[in-house]
From TrEMBL:
Organism: Apodemus speciosus (Large Japanese field mouse)
Location, primary (coarse class): membrane
Protein family according to the UniProt entry: Belongs to the chloride channel (TC 2.A.49) family.
Domain CBS: 140-198
Catalytic activity entry: nitrate(in) = nitrate(out); iodide(out) = iodide(in); bromide(in) = bromide(out); chloride(in) = chloride(out)
Domain of life: Eukaryota
Membrane topology summary: Multi-pass membrane protein
Record-linked InterPro entries: CBS_dom, CBS_dom_sf, Cl-channel_core, Cl_channel_volt-gated, ClC
Protein name per its UniProtKB record: Chloride channel protein
Length: 274
């Protein structure tokens, strides 16, 4: 059943077998100690009997925590047993197991993502691989296609038809390049197609006319600075599950960062070119 659960296209039901295997290993260690010390362990004149069940509880929490890279398995063990007599040794076992496992290999879930070649953002440890000195300015994409409010519609149509992106950064003017919002390509195409064929003679049409006519724009709630460290950018992408962010310097759009640039920068730091 465990092999079946881990090899299906969408793995599921893996945690409980791992929890049981950890309990079995812990119980085996506890029984071995009880045989080696049948009278218990004497510390400070007091005899401490060996309780194999406590070793099973600590083993289940530690092994499952090491596989999943989580600490909450200790709380799960307490809830399943209904008592917290062994709270300190269980927590210490889970912490030690996480320290060892996180320095040796990714968690089961991250390993499954990598094995199935799904989009995956590698985890980094800032002080170990120097992710703080590396800033967004070093790896951001500088080839940014912007749309300005004072851009003629003919140029807007040429940009939309010649690029293959889902959204465009909207800037105030072509000279200032001040980022003011985001325009979805689908909404912009619909707005361009719905424009009337006849306009006032001698009047040049601009993008701001399309925006004023009802083309929706989105505010830029999050943006990066060129001085933002790689570790901070990675934390934002990982915690908020972002796909891309624009980079601004004093309000001026200067680039963008997506999963591709971030993953390449992390790979370069982990395996620097020789």
């Amino acid at each position: 059943m465990l092999i079946l659960a881990t090899t299906v296209p969408m793995p599921a039901g893996y945690f409980m077998p791992v929890f049981i295997m950890g309990a079995a290993v812990g119980r085996l260690l506890g029984e071995a100690l009880s045989v080696a010390f049948p009278e218990g362990i004497v510390v400070g004149g007091e005899v401490n009997p060996i309780m194999p069940g406590g070793y099973a509880l600590a083993g289940a929490a530690a092994f499952s925590g090491a596989v999943t890279h989580t600490i909450s398995t200790a709380l799960l063990a307490f809830e399943l047993t209904g008592q917290i007599v062994h709270a300190l040794p269980v927590l210490m076992a889970v912490l030690a197991a996480n320290v060892v496992s996180q320095n040796c290999q990714p968690s089961f879930y991250d390993g499954t993502i990598m094995a199935k070649k799904l989009p995956y953002l590698p985890r980094i440890r800032g002080r170990q691989i120097g992710s703080y000195p590396a800033t967004v300015e070093h790896f951001m994409n500088r080839n940014l296609t912007t749309l300005a409010k004072d851009m003629p519609l003919e140029e807007v149509v040429r940009v939309v038809t010649s690029t293959d992106v889902s959204q465009y950064p909207l800037v105030e003017t072509r000279e200032s390049q001040t980022l003011v919002g985001i325009v979805e390509k689908t909404h912009l195409v619909q707005a361009l197609q719905s424009q009337p064929a006849s306009w006032a003679p001698g009047r040049e049409r601009f993008l701001q006319d399309i925006l004023a006519g009802g083309c929706p724009t989105q505010p830029v709630t999050l943006q990066l600075s060129p001085e933002t460290s790689l570790y901070q950018a990675h934390s934002l992408f990982e915690l908020l599950t972002l796909q891309a962010l624009f980079v601004t310097s004093r309000g001026r759009a200067v680039g963008s960062v997506s999963w591709a640039e971030l993953k390449k920068a992390i790979s370069t730091l982990i395996n620097p070119p020789k």
